[in-house]
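Thread amino acids onto this structure.
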């Protein structure tokens, strides 16, 4: 079983040479200039960041510890045992390129979608309770936005060989399968009871 390989956030640096010359953007070219009061490393004219490359999402088969997989039922996700007549979805995952909600202790910031369906996992409230829904979006359109899309964000963390996904909008609420087959995939605060919050991810061939 392959271990998911997700992209890390870019690193940011001030750059100068041994003569204290810094890089400055002059229209569409880089020039080197002495560091003076008019040219500051934190200026918008100074290049400080490593390049951010647009990456394709990663694709995974997902199942819980009871071998329940995710199935698309109209515009909802349900969990069902894997049998010959069940067609599980393939999950697409990409990391968020913005660091606004980054928390190293909680895991990587990711967007999650359903491959080939133009649907993404989305957290909202229904009757005052956090719920998991599907919204017409793609992970790459979310990735390309100028700001983080908080309702679509999850912290992806590893617990042994399994993965857990915590809502960024609702801290302490995790994606979960019910132990009862064909029930909706939900958000829950109750881990290790009737809800399974630990998942195996297997990279698609």
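Threaded sequence (205 positions):
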């Amino acid at each position: 079983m392959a271990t998911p390989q997700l992209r890390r956030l870019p690193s940011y640096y001030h750059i100068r040479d041994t003569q204290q010359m810094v890089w400055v953007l002059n229209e569409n070219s880089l020039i080197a200039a002495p560091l003076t009061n008019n040219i500051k490393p934190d200026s918008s004219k100074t290049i400080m960041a490593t390049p951010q490359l647009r990456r394709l999402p990663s694709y995974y088969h997902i199942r819980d510890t009871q071998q329940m997989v995710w199935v698309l039922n109209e515009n909802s996700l349900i969990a069902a045992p894997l049998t010959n007549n069940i067609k599980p979805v393939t999950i697409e995952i990409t990391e968020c390129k913005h660091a606004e909600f980054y928390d190293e202790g909680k895991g990587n910031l990711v967007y999650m979608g359903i491959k080939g369906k133009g649907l993404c996992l989305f957290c909202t409230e229904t009757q005052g309770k956090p719920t998991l829904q599907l919204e017409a979006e793609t992970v790459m359109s979310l990735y390309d936005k100028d700001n983080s899309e908080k309702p679509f964000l999850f912290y992806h963390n590893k617990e042994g060989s399994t993965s857990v996904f915590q809502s960024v909008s609702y801290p302490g609420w995790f994606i979960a399968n019910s132990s009862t087959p064909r029930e909706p995939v939900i958000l829950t605060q109750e881990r290790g009871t009737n809800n399974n919050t630990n998942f195996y991810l297997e990279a698609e061939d």
